[in-house]
Design a protein that fits this description.
The chain is of the alpha/beta class. The chain is built from 5 helices and 4 strands, in the order E-H-E-H-E-E-H-H-H.
């Protein structure tokens, strides 16, 4: 199982080790979730200022956040599903605030690697249709996150 991941580091601060961790955790999660081989996802690392702009523009929330996902498979109004053909599955985009990643790692008293893995996985599960708007959905999503992170070996310190 291999996900095709396009990394964009707008902050120019991520190490190869950090990108590798995100790559590994997303591939691990994709395998656990039964995602088709060679499905595509993009992961962009940004500053708090940039994620705040995105949050304001697309979600009408004028504040920074830790991670935003844009699922490309959700059909909008008046859109039709394209079936067939041999094109790779394009899951969507995950945008992670590196500023927020560092702050939350410190706040939760665990490593930046753990927080980065958590946020990447959280965004990825959103691309697969998980949500946390309702209490039952939240329990399901957060349990799945914990199970995947624990099995991967990226537990809270």
């Amino acid at each position: 199982m291999t996900l095709l991941i396009d990394f964009i580091d707008e902050t120019e601060t991520l190490s190869d080790e950090q990108k590798s961790l995100v790559h590994k955790i997303l591939n691990f999660a994709a395998e656990k979730e039964g995602v088709e081989d060679e499905s595509e996802v993009s992961v962009t690392f940004v500053t708090d200022d940039r994620i705040r702009e995105i949050n304001r523009e697309y979600r009408d929330k004028d504040q920074p956040t830790d991670v935003i996902s844009f699922a490309l498979e959700e059909l909008g109004e008046d859109e039709i599903e394209i079936i067939g053909g041999e094109i790779p599955r394009v899951l969507g985009d995950i945008i992670i605030s590196i500023d927020r990643t560092k702050e939350q790692a410190e706040e939760y008293n665990h490593s930046i690697a753990r927080e980065l893995g958590f946020l990447a996985l959280h965004g990825f599960l959103h691309l697969l249709g998980y949500d946390h708007m309702e209490e039952e959905e939240e329990k399901r999503m957060f349990k799945r996150q914990k199970d995947i992170l624990d099995e991967y070996g990226l537990k809270r310190d």
